[in-house]
Amino acid sequence: MNIVVCVKQVPDTATERKLRSDDKTLDRDAADGVINELCEYAVEEALRLKEAHGGEVTVLTMGPDKASDTIRKALAMGADKAVHLVDDALHGSDALGTSHALAQALKKISFDLVVLGSESTDARTGVLAAMLAERLGVPQLTFANQVQIDKDAISIQRVTDYGYDRVEASLPAVVSVVEKINEPRYPSFKGIMAAKKKPVEKLGVAEAEIDASQVGLVGSWSEVVDFAAAPPRAAGTVVKDEGDGGVKAADFLASKKFV
Ligand SMILES: Cc1cc2nc3c(=O)[nH]c(=O)nc-3n(C[C@H](O)[C@H](O)[C@H](O)COP(=O)(O)OP(=O)(O)OC[C@H]3O[C@@H](n4cnc5c(N)ncnc54)[C@H](O)[C@@H]3O)c2cc1C
Q1: How far is CA 89 from the centre of its chain?
Q2: Taking every pair of C-alpha atoms in the chain, what is the biggest distance, in angstroms?
Q3: Per-residue pLDDT tens digits for 112-134
Q4: Domains in the chain: ranges and CATH
Q5: Of the listed ranges 7-16, 56-65, 76-85, the one predicted with least confidence
Q6: 196-208 confidence digits (pLDDT tens)
Q7: Ligand 1, residues 94, 99, 205: which to mutate, most atoms within 8 A of Cβ?
């Protein structure tokens, strides 16, 4: 089974994220890049499916040069090889542009299953899986907290507001996974060393036959026209409990019409 897992590098949520003043895109140099949390669950699920059904796991990442660290992390977890879409022309791509670029790369990689996280921690559009499935003309199974494969049939338990749906389709397909679908493994020292030798193919816009007019700032359908820092959080109300803390708290809640 050829499994491709889409892995995004995002700014470390522990550090302050800034937008660049020149083109209002995220300043990815101002913060450490880390693997998107839900992409770790996606890599783990891909590895478990490979262990159960055989085959190969390929990491696919669109990002600047520094995204190589994140690719190495996924290879250290156990993925076999990687494709890194890297080109200045991709900078500032919106979700539509990113989905076009990833789909073009996927047309060059044979796949039975494409695995994604259900959302990223920086943009959180949560639309890549659907857009990719549309562009590739294959079924999409999203928000999976359980994935089962039987020959060329895939079925998932899909998380919903009211519980679960059981969703089934035929491979090839696109699946997105939610948090807690599994427990991502930590790369072993052996895995980290092996990752250094695993092949990473770098593709630019031309090699991947990406339409440059559909990506980057020029190809984006959405544009950040302005931004402002969030107002500093107002200090809360401190209630000193001199035996009447409960009453004071109830009065405060009543004054805010919470009760
Ligand atoms: C703060 C901010 C706001 C943004 N707002 C918008 C917006 O409103 N509209 C818009 O169209 N674009 C927006 N973008 C751009 C958008 O983030 C990128 O195009 C992004 O690559 C795709 O969207 P996402 O991360 O939200 O995808 P999501 O659908 O949230 O990501 C889900 C999964 O898609 C895969 N994935 C996402 N990006 C990549 C990648 N580069 N390489 C490999 N796999 C990937 C991963 O598996 C990830 O787990 C914004 C970016 C930022 C930083």
Answers
A1: 21
A2: 72
A3: 999 999 999 999 999 999 999 99
A4: 2-219 (3.40.50.620)
A5: 7-16
A6: 999 999 999 999 9
A7: 94
Q: What is the per-residue pLDDT for 237?
A: 78
Cα separation, 202 vs 214, in Å, equals 20
Q: Are 189 and 129 in contact (CB under 8 A)?
A: no
Evaluated on CA atoms 48, 51, 52, 54, the torsion sign reads: positive
What lines the ligand 1 site, CB under 6 Å?
6-8, 26, 36, 38-39, 42, 60-63, 93-96, 98, 102, 116-117, 119-120, 122-128, 222
What does the pLDDT read at residue 18?
83
Range of lowest pLDDT (47-56, 72-81, 135-144, 225-234): 225-234
**223 Cα: distance to centroid of ligand 1 (angstroms):** 14
Q: Are 122 and 105 in contact (CB under 8 A)?
A: no
Distance separating alpha carbons of residues 164 and 158, to the nearest angstrom: 5
Mutate which of 125, 135, 177, 225 for ligand 1? The one with the most ligand atoms within 8 Å of its CB, which is: 125
The owner of tokens 């670029």 is 101
| Nearest protein Cα to ligand 1, atom 31 | 119
Tell how far the Cα of 52 is from the centroid of ligand 1, in angstroms: 30
Choose the weakest-confidence range: 8-12, 33-37, 121-125, 230-234: 230-234
Instruction: Give distance in angstroms: CA of 150 to centre of ligand 1.
Output: 31
